[in-house]
Amino acid sequence: MTAIAFLGLGAIGRPMARRVAAAFPETVVWNRTAATAEAFGREHGVRVAPTAADAVRAADVVITCLSTSQDVAAVVADGVLDAIRQGAVFVDCTSGDPATSRRLAHDLAARGIAFMDAPVSGGTVGAENGTLTVMCGGSAEVLERVRPVLEAFGTKIVHCGDVGAGDALKAVNNALLALHVLSTAEGLAALQRAGVRPDVALDVINASSGRSNASMNLFPERVLTRAFPRTFRLALLDKDTRIAADVAREQRVPSPLLQLTSELMAMARRELGEDADHVEAVKMIERWSNVEIG
Amino acid sequence: MTAIAFLGLGAIGRPMARRVAAAFPETVVWNRTAATAEAFGREHGVRVAPTAADAVRAADVVITCLSTSQDVAAVVADGVLDAIRQGAVFVDCTSGDPATSRRLAHDLAARGIAFMDAPVSGGTVGAENGTLTVMCGGSAEVLERVRPVLEAFGTKIVHCGDVGAGDALKAVNNALLALHVLSTAEGLAALQRAGVRPDVALDVINASSGRSNASMNLFPERVLTRAFPRTFRLALLDKDTRIAADVAREQRVPSPLLQLTSELMAMARRELGEDADHVEAVKMIERWSNVEIG
Amino acid sequence: MTAIAFLGLGAIGRPMARRVAAAFPETVVWNRTAATAEAFGREHGVRVAPTAADAVRAADVVITCLSTSQDVAAVVADGVLDAIRQGAVFVDCTSGDPATSRRLAHDLAARGIAFMDAPVSGGTVGAENGTLTVMCGGSAEVLERVRPVLEAFGTKIVHCGDVGAGDALKAVNNALLALHVLSTAEGLAALQRAGVRPDVALDVINASSGRSNASMNLFPERVLTRAFPRTFRLALLDKDTRIAADVAREQRVPSPLLQLTSELMAMARRELGEDADHVEAVKMIERWSNVEIG
Amino acid sequence: MTAIAFLGLGAIGRPMARRVAAAFPETVVWNRTAATAEAFGREHGVRVAPTAADAVRAADVVITCLSTSQDVAAVVADGVLDAIRQGAVFVDCTSGDPATSRRLAHDLAARGIAFMDAPVSGGTVGAENGTLTVMCGGSAEVLERVRPVLEAFGTKIVHCGDVGAGDALKAVNNALLALHVLSTAEGLAALQRAGVRPDVALDVINASSGRSNASMNLFPERVLTRAFPRTFRLALLDKDTRIAADVAREQRVPSPLLQLTSELMAMARRELGEDADHVEAVKMIERWSNVEIG
User: Fold this and answer.
1) Within an 8 Å CB–CB cutoff, is residue D162 touching chain C?
2) How far apart (Å, rounded) are the C-alpha atoms in residues A215 and A265?
């Protein structure tokens, strides 16, 4: 029977951990803010560990779902590296950066622990329904060992390449999302000022060649309605976009659009703050344009 | 009974004209290269005029489907303005620019002729099946008068705003298409060099938030296969992207991504030539990156 | 003896007009805001016309020094075109755009009036001392006819090319200025956050290959001191930068840096307002960077 | 008496080493390509070491002048770290990157060896004449210890800040140089196509606010003459520009112009090759513009 340690009970981590605990009774959770972990433990009848080191001690599989690779590295350095037992697998579902993941993999390998980066997409809804896409970076053999655990929350489990490959792909996907949000805003702001209503513009674009997930879903549901629900923080999308830009630069791929998107997201983060939702980046374009899309 | 003059039998114009002629027996066509018009006339039993001026003389509705607004202006100046009869409607299905369309509308209005810009999307397949989207700029009353003609080739007929609004919307849609082609290429080139196969990357992106029409259709069908069929010239997409960039600038909408896309398309046009297909813009990114996506 | 009409008594126009009037007693001035013209007339003993049309009626040479080519076109349309006499020369010292200058030249030529664009550089100090650089677009013959008038305020009088060439060159010079202000700010903000004091950085850069007029003069005198004197409006530099960007685009010169500079200046104008000095564009970079250079 | 080891006899290193050896008789040199070192030794009567480790063994001050920080790290790892004696100072005159310099400083400090990054500007002429600017990153105390050595080749010796500060400043200076070369080319290409000769344009710009070291020196001497002498490799300027872009990104300074410049230099490097001179980046803009500046 597989013992799981699940570290990080954020917006995505909570529903993932709930599903993992339902499938694997020997699951223990930990969260930096203890109150969150205790509430989660009470509600779902899951064991809560007082420290990350305690959580991982008996685990066959350690799953992390934190904000950044730096957070993962900090947890690893704070007792986890010493507590985790040889032969365990460390699955990092954080949207991380490949360089830090490779370093973690290296440090863990020295202790006989396999590492796999496994960021997910699908949002809170996908996490709740267990229909996430899981982007795996590491050896195929390690992936097969943890596949049953990943199946607790994911339906599309993809082996992307070596350690860091999952991070890289997640980052590029998210950078394209950021690019679509910003560029669709530029286009709709220009059209609105030229006398074309954004609902009309989206109706046409979404039947044409310029459509994207952003134009088909985010703008109709969140921008035109001015709802801007807070589902995924702009600060995290800025971080992901920068990771993608850094990957492109490391790989010596001239990538003017990805790089510019990273700069624009950094500006948006400064303008809109740490708590803003990613779609609120639209408001920076609106401010520059003196128009409200809707 | 409505007499139609259809000017411009290019890749999109030909199937549109065929459908118009089928619905409106009093259709006469004209094309700059006479041989094309004559072949079309023979094949479909449609009357061919020797000059554009001859074509429009008896027309209730004049339809143009040329490469650029400059081409339309040249045809108008070359006898059409004098030949077209008062009360006719001039429907320009060219992917034009709003400024030239407004000038044409002004000049035609002085002769009692209404103008509507009505660029289309849906490609040659949409034109053949009569399922184009038609983006109309002009008065609602004029649109109602010509709607039966538009219905010969379009199913989604959208009133976008005043003269130029159709052009503006078509241009922005196409600029987003150009942006998606280029940025997806940047991302996939970086991932491939980082060890992630592009088919794997597209499989994940197309199940995630970064997907676009380009990632869902163009890259799997045209780039990964290295087929690059010539369906829509890069030179025309460059022209459309520039129109969108100019609209944004005229409307004082800071639009760094649209502007940069316009510059990149201009570079791609210089690198790849006037005959290249729009998706071949990918090859510029590949060359910069020293990688072939696929 | 040469009669001069001088239209436009702004920050640069006033000292220019004063020097022209000193050299050519038959000078009459006009300004949109009448009080400015009257004060100028009283102070310098120069004749003031109540309207632009009145001012130009007897002139051999008409000089305009307004904010934009649109302002010049408006004045020409508002009676000047009809009032100006055949054989006169129209010298436009506005930092204008080539397209509007060419149209004005065309309209004036139909009345037998020669046009020359002749924007100046050197600032208010150069205007006061009569040491401006004058960038002339038009025929060499027209330039020779007006050279004595230009010498009243300029020492470096350069024939740049046909009508519009002076505008184009002035715009490119100013776009480079804008680029230098913004990019030096980016670099200094990054260095300051990395622990390098901006005065030290400028000391080194100004002895090295990265120096520019901005780093050598504007930053030490205006940014490090936080003085930001209002000598040249950001709104006007935004206008000039956009003209340069448009010239490059018309000439099909891919120019990613000039285009991006134009977008950044448009953002800065929106952020900092119509009254800000051009060097205050630095404050936008500072805000994004959460640092004050100095 | 101070014993010096000078590692790296490239275009800048050679004249620097010659001056150091003249001032400090106990100088020993090393170069990866041994033939270069031997020729240098014969010509200047300087002792040559067979390996870097041999060179540093007796040194009080080790000076490195290599292409990249990666080269320095490789030399350090290849025996130098073990051979260098406690109490020595390691002065790295490479145009390096701050992150690697900080890592080297950390590794050397563990052996009791102080590190200072000290990249230089002034080119081969400055190196020959001993008039280089030296940008020092490290403690003020270490700088004072090595100042006499630096004075062998530099006249302007500037303490920029902690370890990495010299690298950061050198990189930003060079990024501005790259930006000026590219943007001046964009502007001149556009003007030339608009009918303004580049020599006329430069004459005006160099008397106006848009001037830079590039417009005042590089374009008149190297571009208009089509001489393009090979004095500083484009590949190295690309590397420096990227370091500056990375510093800005690490410091969370939105820097769209520096980032875009880095992308353009990467493109230019791919187009023009590893041996091209930095000013040849102009040729990429020329090719895009279908014009030769001159």
Assistant:
1) yes
2) 18
Q: Position D18: which residue type?
A: R
Q: Tell me which residues of chain B have a pLDDT lower than 50.
A: none
Interface predicted TM-score of the whole assembly (ipTM), two decimals:
0.96
What Å distances lie between residue B99 and B135, B165, C121, D134, CA to CA?
16, 10, 32, 55
Dihedral, CA of residue D244, residue D247, residue D252 and residue D257, to nearest 10: 10
CA distances from D39 to C236, D4, D93, D286 (A): 59, 19, 22, 40
Is A169 in CB contact (< 8 Å) with chain B? Answer: yes
Q: Looking at chain A, which subunits does it touch, using at least 3 CB pairs closer than 8 Å as the criterion? A: B, C, D
Of B256, B266, B287, the CB nearest to D256: B256
Give Cα separations from D105 to A118, A255, C224, D57, D80 (angstroms).
35, 32, 32, 18, 14
Of B162, B175, B207, the CB nearest to A195: B162
CA–CA dist D181, A98 (Å, integer): 34
Q: Is A283 noted as a catalytic residue in this protein?
A: no
Nearest by CB to C288, from A260, A270, A288: name it: A270
D288 close contact with A: CB closer than 8 A: no
Q: Do domains D4-161 and D168-289 have the same CATH topology?
A: no
- Closest Cα of chain A to C121: distance in Å? 30
CA-based nearest distance C288→chain A, Å: 6
| D168-289 fold | N-(1-d-carboxylethyl)-l-norvaline Dehydrogenase; domain 2 (1.10.1040)
Task: Write the pLDDT tens digit of every residue in B142-198.
Answer: 999 999 999 999 999 999 999 999 999 999 999 999 999 999 999 999 999 999 999
What are the residue boundaries of the structural domains of chain D, listed by start?
4-161, 168-289
The mean pLDDT of chain A is: 97
Class of domain B4-161: alpha beta
3-state secondary structure C165-233: HHHHHHHHHHHHHHHHHHHHHHHHHHHHHCCCCHHHHHHHHCCCCCCEHHHHHHHHHHHCCCCCCCCCE
Q: Given an 8 Å threshold on Cβ–Cβ distance, is B260 in contact with C262?
A: no
Mean pLDDT of chain C: 97
* Residues counted in chain B: 294
Give residues with Cβ within 8 angstroms of A202, minimum separation 6: A188, A215, A219, A220, A224
User: Which pTM value belongs to this model?
Assistant: 0.97
- Cα nearest neighbour of D286 on chain C: C253
Q: How far apart are CA D67 and CA B94, in angstroms?
A: 54
**Closest residue in A to D266 (Cα–Cα):** A254
Pick left, alpha or beta for residue A265 (phi over 0 → left; psi -120 to 50 → alpha; otherwise beta).
alpha
The answer to whether C190 contacts chain A (CB < 8 Å) is no
Confidence of residue A1 (pLDDT cuts 50, 70, 90): low
**pLDDT band at residue D284 under the 50/70/90 scheme:** very high
